[in-house]
């Protein structure tokens, strides 16, 4: 099989590194020593954390040609699809097999970040170390039949509520946690893989609450929710306010705003801090990432390509009035920090899951 040029360069570089005497090996501290000179990016490639039907797969068809000009590539970037919808397989491959020479960038959905935060045994990557180039952010909306106003009577009675989820630790975990903070006993109903399946289950009374994570323009959201109105299902809140969701022309309150309205105080506590991390990760539509230790010149080259694509309107069809906010360059850092969270919040999340997951599996 023909070896690609950048694979040859990487292997040659590592071979040279292996031949350095032990006394001098410690002085080679940067991968830039074996990466292409300057900002040159040889054979730029997109590793897609998902299959062709996934969010990452759909984005790759836009990004592959859009980034080519800024990177000086003669044709759309090569794309390598992986399996599944949640991106875990691709994220594992990126973190364990990608040479940090700046040639390969990862397209990853928020579901892969949530899996890592929850301690999913399939996840073997640390996304907090990645270098973000571009983030597409959304504000998932929670819809259902639930009285969020708690009375004194509610304090002494059990209030179970069924939440549609793709898996126990999927994107909808933020909604499950939110229902618990509102005083309910959430019961995740698993195996509901698509938004339409979730909405059908809500309409038919099989679940009480669903989370709509797919970004869409206001008109499409109105049309999607219209069949649910006879069943009494209404928008309850959004997971964030990065993008303001509107239904019938009225903005939907964020979780923090709705909680404050119903309780007369802002949400606080370690569980809320854990929820914020999960909600931030679940609000990532897609991220474009480079590996840790990628040389600064190559990072700059990719950022330049993202900027060129943006100025030429390559992303207009994705962001124009479609429920997305695009963040690029160094501005991505604070959002990735929110998705990574403090160790105390992540430990609280895993402790909370360890207590409640066995209950959910017992029904």
Automatic annotation (TrEMBL):
It comes from Gluconacetobacter takamatsuzukensis. Residues 1-25 form the signal peptide. Keywords: Signal. It comes from the Bacteria. This is Tripartite-type tricarboxylate transporter, receptor component TctC. InterPro entries: TAT_signal.
């Amino acid at each position: 099989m023909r070896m690609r040029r950048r694979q040859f360069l990487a292997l040659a570089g590592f071979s040279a590194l292996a031949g350095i005497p032990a006394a001098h090996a410690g002085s080679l501290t940067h991968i830039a020593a074996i990466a292409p000179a300057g900002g040159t990016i040889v054979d730029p490639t997109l590793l897609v954390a998902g299959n062709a039907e996934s969010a990452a797969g759909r984005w790759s068809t836009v990004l592959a040609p859009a980034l080519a000009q800024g990177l000086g590539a003669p044709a759309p970037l090569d794309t390598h699809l992986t399996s599944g919808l949640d991106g875990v397989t691709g994220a594992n491959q990126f973190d364990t097999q990608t040479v940090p020479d700046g040639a390969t960038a990862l397209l990853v959905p928020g579901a892969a970040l949530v899996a890592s935060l929850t301690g999913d045994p399939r996840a073997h990557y640390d996304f907090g170390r990645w270098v973000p180039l571009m983030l597409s952010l959304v504000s998932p909306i929670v819809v259902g039949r639930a009285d969020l106003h708690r009375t004194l009577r509610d304090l002494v009675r059990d209030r179970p509520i069924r939440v549609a989820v793709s898996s126990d630790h999927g994107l909808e975990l933020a909604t499950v946690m939110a229902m618990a903070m509102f005083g309910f006993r959430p019961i995740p109903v698993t195996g509901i893989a698509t938004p339409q399946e979730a909405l059908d289950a809500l309409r038919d009374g099989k679940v009480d609450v669903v989370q709509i994570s797919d970004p869409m323009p206001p008109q499409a959201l109105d049309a999607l929710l219209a069949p649910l109105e006879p069943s009494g299902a209404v928008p309850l809140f959004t997971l964030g306010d990065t993008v303001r969701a509107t239904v019938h022309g009225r903005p939907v309150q964020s979780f923090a705003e709705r909680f404050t309205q119903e309780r007369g105080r802002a949400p606080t506590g370690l569980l809320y801090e854990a929820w914020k991390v999960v909600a931030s990760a679940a609000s990532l539509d897609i991220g474009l990432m480079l590996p840790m230790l990628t040389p600064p010149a190559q990072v700059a080259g990719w950022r330049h390509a993202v900027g060129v694509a943006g100025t030429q309107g390559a992303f207009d069809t994705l962001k124009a009035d479609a429920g997305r906010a695009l963040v690029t360059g160094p501005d991505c850092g604070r959002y990735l920090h929110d998705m990574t969270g403090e160790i105390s919040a992540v430990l609280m999340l895993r402790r909370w899951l360890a207590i409640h997951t066995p209950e959910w599996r017992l029904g």
